[in-house]
Amino acid sequence: MPKSSDTTVIGAINPFTKVVVAVCLIIAGLVSPPWFALVVVLVGVVTAALNRKLKGFLKLFAVAMVTMGLFIFVLNLIARAGEPVLWRWHILAITQPGLDAAIGYTARFLVIGVGVMIIMHTTDLHRFSRYLEQRGVSSKATYVVQSTALILPQLVARGAVIMDAQRARGIETDANLGVRLKALLPTAAPLILSTLSGMAERAVSLEARGMTLTGPRTSLLSVRDTWGDKVARWLAIAALVAYLAWKVWQWAR
Description:
By secondary structure, the protein is mainly alpha-helical.
């Protein structure tokens, strides 16, 4: 039987600590040279491996980050005019400002995207929401955070089920682009309707669970906040403030 993620070195850390450290890493990356994006990617690979989520991390990185990163790079590379011109072919030209912009924007995209992926692959959303409630955050607010973060995974899972059902009915969904476009409507309509009905059912279930009631609440889950977590959070924030101050001092020279 596989171990749960909270038994790993990364999984045992307080979820709020992981979010704070990841956000500090993202902010530092946005004001750093482009090569810092490689550091963020390396941190993401190491943390995902320590949390036994390396396969999912690399798959998402290859499918989403690489594809969007290449699109951003090429778009900025050919859309910026200026001098000097490094390469020209008919109406297309690659300039030094375009190359600099392509590298800079792609690096920032990787920093933000990989930072979010680190949070996704190391932080249990239920434990994070529960810790926020322990800190006094409203249960309604934590539910909004949790449900918003789960929208995309739920849509993907529901869409996969609907696609399997359509294939079982004899609808071709895996052929060329034209066939896939024809299958879009019979697939999208059930997805939209099931999503709307799911929202209504979720609202009823929240009311049945006493979401609108006031007073103290109890939970079977209690998230520990050790002194090590508190020290790690303050060290991350202090390091970020010191780094930003150093960058400001360098820019002002």
